[in-house]
Amino acid sequence: MRMKHTRLKGGENKSAGLGNAEVIVDCSSKEATCWLSHYHSRERMRVHEEERNPARLVVTQTSPHDRVFATIKRMPLLLWNREFIMRVLATQEVETGDFLVCIQSVDEAVDYGSTFRTVRGTTTAFLRVSSLGDSQCEVVLYQYLEAGGIVPIRVENSKIPQSLSVLQ
């Protein structure tokens, strides 16, 4: 897997990161797209639990290809956890047959059933899944991530590759 990330200086006292990752996957492009757009699959929930993140849930689902998800990512000691609420859309490009998954932060209130002290982060991501035959595909991810608030560079440098590692 090839991965690259860049730290960007955002607005006042804010930092953001821009990253991209590319990987060849041994499955069809349709299977890879289904896995990427199903944010609440058992495997992804298992990883979420292993990372000891406090919450991950489906907020709304208007169609199988249009969902809103909420997640709270655990941060190191002395930093508040980060909350991300995002809309995930999946579609197929007519001309090339590639599958596209688009992710955009949305401003919605979420009832987690518990109270968490969080800072709202934002993200925008674009994934292109291109078929390389019946049993392989290439997945390319571009992601912009702003954690919100002030985050030390060492923490940011560890979290951006972690967010890109979804392709592993």
Q: What report would you give on this structure?
A:
This protein is 18% helix and 46% strand. The relative contact order is 0.25. With 168 residues, it is of the alpha+beta class. The longest helix has 12 residues, at 153-164. Strand 3 (55-63) and strand 4 form a beta hairpin. Strands 1, 2, 3, 4, 5, 6, 7, 8 and 9 form a nine-stranded mixed β-sheet that branches.
Q: Which features would summarize this protein structure in a list?
A:
single chain, 168 residues, alpha+beta, 9-stranded mixed beta sheet, 3 helices, 9 strands, globular
Q: Determine the mean pLDDT.
A: 81
Bin the strand percentage: over 45%
Low-confidence stretches: none
What structural class should be given to the helix and strand makeup?
Answer: alpha+beta
Number of strands: 9
Q: What is the N-to-C succession of helices and strands? A: EEHHEEEEEEEH
How many angstroms does the end-to-end distance come to?
A: 7 Å
In short:
With 168 residues, this protein is an alpha+beta fold.
List the helices and strands and how they pair.
Blueprint: E1 2-9, E2 15-25, H1 29-37, H2 42-50, E3 55-63, E4 66-73, E5 81-92, E6 99-105, E7 118-120, E8 122-131, E9 137-146, H3 153-164
Parallel strand pairs: 5-7
Antiparallel strand pairs: 1-2, 2-9, 3-4, 4-5, 5-6, 6-8, 8-9
